[in-house]
Amino acid sequence: MARLDLKAVLLASALAMLGAAVNAEERYGIGRAATPAEIAGWNIDIGRDGANLPPGSGSVARGRVVFSEQCASCHGESGQGGVGDRLAGGQGTLASPKPIRTVGSYWPYAPTLFDYIRRAMPQNAPQSLDNADVYAVSAYILSLNGIVPENAVLDATSLAAIRMPNRDGFISDPRPDVHNH
Amino acid sequence: MSEQTTDKRVRAASRRHFLQAGAALASGSAMAGFAGTNALAVSDSNLPPSVPEWMKAPGDPTGSQPYGAPSVHEQGVVRNISKTLPQYVSAASRTPLQELDGIITPNGLFYERHHGGVPTIDPAEHRLMLHGMVDRPLVFTIEDIRRFPSQSRIHFIECSGNPVYTKPYGKTASDLVGLVSCAEWTGVPLKTVLDEAGLQAGARWIVAEGADAAALTRSIPIEKCLDDAMLVYSQNGERLRPQQGYPLRLLLPGFEGNMNVKWLRRLKVTAEPAYSREETAKYTDPMPDGTSREFTFIMEAKSIITRPSGGQKLIARGFHQITGLAWSGHGTIKRVEVSVDGGAGWQAAELQEPVLTRALPRFRLPWHWDGRPAMIQSRAIDETGYIQPTLAELVAVRGLNSFYHNNAIWPWRIDANGEVSNGQA
Fold it and tell me: Which residues of A touch B140 (CB under 8 A)?
């Protein structure tokens, strides 16, 4: 039995090697390895749970200053009334005939705010704010929505710990939903 | 020669033509209408029995347009973009569907939806990074991507908000559903490139990111990535236009437009979606009860009559061909039915062969207009048996604020003068 087992193992291992060789041949050998530094530089995604949030922190007070300088011309001083998306208010309106979708009323995850501000805002100079100011602007927008207090200072841990009001407001796609057959 | 130089020459050439054409030039979009309602005074000196002036002297030299442009008499056939948008960085322009024939959208008229403007990318300095849950994280140049075995396929891309559910409804087919276009795309199956990196166990999603100022990010289910997804570098035979993602874009046949990430720079293989802003705060579909549908990827079956359609005019009683476009993100269009009596009766239209999956097949139906007011409309049925619904049927389920994925039947009203207008307006 032992000898049989050994044979089986050898055969399996030979097959595995053969398989690996075939796989290697199936690859085209196109492209080069991405280095960890290259990946770290480009991988700016923040998970909904706060994964990949960088070190640093920012206060509501600092955020008010940065927002006034960088964001208010499109979004209004208090996060509404400009040509940009409305950022504040609207809680309790989603089931009404005129729903108002803002960060406070609609966004399900607070870390997404950091992700989006850092990657895309301000629109005329994306990826120009440092991480501390991205935390600060996130804190200010959340304070405009009554989600964090005026004296809040946000960092990776505290931003990830926030539970947004519309956290459970999303359902999976049920279509086809119109029964007209 | 740089593209800019070419562009300048074409513009200069166009301008010369424009000046030469003088008063004969007018809005092509008005002239090109179904009715041919040409309000311009046309000289008869070029008509029989006279010899037309363009036969009495040589024409423009060969090669006077290194990159050819449409006739000066078609300069009104352009993308349809509102002149009153608050800003044009995150905005859309529409294909003039009612001006076009066949199933392919010319590259210069392909609809646009940008979230951070149109970047000018030097392909030599562009890279695609593939990382995350793969055995071998890789970086590719555009030349690398072009070395892989290529494929060409014809598919539509449609913006998910085409149109919204609320008034004011548009006047023309372009106003209504001009955020759909169709092209032949050339590139490499995404699966081929993923195999090169080796997917790890537990890989369920791929997060795609564009190299635009929005760094637009969407999460794609791995099943789609391993099925018919492509990395695309050419469109209708030439390299992608900047507006369509030059030098590299993702193509996800049948999925909502914004997921077909343009200017693609990064693919991250993950176990979970990114829950990016574009798939939570935007591109989620609000329902009357206050909840919203997320990850509503597929564009359901839809059709539109493009001739006769809103803004056009039937100039005579008698024969008119009704024609339009149909499409489904679920696969092949099996049938298009047309009603010319306000939805009471329906008859099958002829579908242009070959009817390609997730493309924009054209349908045609001969019709005799008796000169009386009429309401005409089309409905598409796809390979799943799904029947394009009415607006009322959609609104009954989704309300008026769902914003995305309105695939309603759209009727056109024809009055006794032959004027065509929006039947829902």
Answer: 30-31
Give the pLDDT confidence score for residue B191 in this predicted structure. 98
The ipTM value here is 0.88
Cis geometry, peptide bond prior to residue B247 (ω within 30 degrees of 0):
yes
Residue B351: alpha-carbon gap to chain centroid: 19
- CA of B214, closest CA in chain A: separation in Å? 5
**Mean pLDDT value across residues A1-9:** 47
Q: What is the pTM of this model?
A: 0.90
pLDDT at position A3 over 60: no
| Whether B391 contacts chain A with CB within 8 A | no
Domain range for residue A82? 44-161
The fold of the B302-422 domain, in CATH, is Immunoglobulin-like (2.60.40)
Q: Residues B202, B271: contact at Cβ < 8 Å?
A: yes
- Whether residue A166 is contained in a domain is answered as no
Closest CA to B144 of B121, B122, B125, B127: B127
Pure H helices in B123-201: 142-147, 173-177, 190-197
Q: How far apart are the first and last CA of chain A?
A: 64
Which residue from B148, B281, B286 is facing A94, i.e. has the nearest CB?
Answer: B286
